[in-house]
């Protein structure tokens, strides 16, 4: 019987030792999981803190780009108006200085336009 009791005792000891190792492994796994979750939480907090300034920079950059674009369009519009006014003044000055030539040019331009309109009208029929 002693050998049976010894075998049972050794079996219990092996099972107890395996259970202790298993519990230690579980505790270690739990600790590792907790540390990983804590690190992940810290990263998320860091990203949250940094997202605000990054968004502000993006908004500022977009606002600056929009302002520069609007200024460029306004400048181009002013330049175009100035060129139209210069061209208009040039035409009026030429007509005043050369009324006969201006009348002949206007008549020739009108004749060309009428010819084009007739040509386009007959090609559709």
Could you outline the blueprint of secondary structure elements for this entry?
Elements: H1 2-97, H2 99-124
Which descriptors apply to this entry?
125 residues, mainly alpha, 98% helix, 0% strand, rod-shaped
Structure description:
- There is one protein chain.
- The chain is mainly alpha-helical and 125 residues long.
- It has one domain (2-124).
- The chain has 2 helices and no strands.
- It has helices at 2-97, 99-124.
- Helix 1 (2-97) crosses helix 2.
- The chain is rod-shaped.
- The model has no long low-confidence stretch (mean pLDDT 81).
SSE class: mainly alpha
Spatial gap, N to C terminus: 123 Å
Rg over alpha carbons: 46 Å
| Biggest sheet details | none
How many helices does DSSP assign? 2
| Helicity range | over 70%
How many domains comprise the coordinates?
1
Overall mean pLDDT: 81
Number of strands: 0
Low-confidence segments, ≥5 residues, pLDDT <50? none
Produce a short descriptive summary.
The protein is 98% helix and 0% strand. With 125 residues, the chain is mostly helical. The mean pLDDT is 81.
């Amino acid at each position: 019987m002693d050998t049976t009791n010894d075998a049972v005792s050794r079996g219990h000891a092996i099972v107890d030792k395996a259970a202790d190792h298993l519990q230690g492994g579980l505790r270690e796994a739990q600790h590792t999981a907790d540390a990983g979750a804590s690190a992940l939480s810290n990263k998320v907090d860091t990203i949250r803190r940094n997202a605000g300034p990054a968004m502000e920079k993006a908004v500022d950059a977009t606002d600056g780009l929009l302002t520069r674009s609007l200024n460029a369009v306004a400048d181009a519009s002013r330049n175009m108006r100035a060129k139209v006014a210069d061209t208009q003044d040039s035409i009026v000055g030429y007509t005043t200085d050369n009324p006969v030539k201006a009348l002949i040019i206007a008549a020739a331009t009108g004749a060309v336009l009428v010819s084009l309109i007739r040509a386009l009208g007959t090609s559709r029929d």
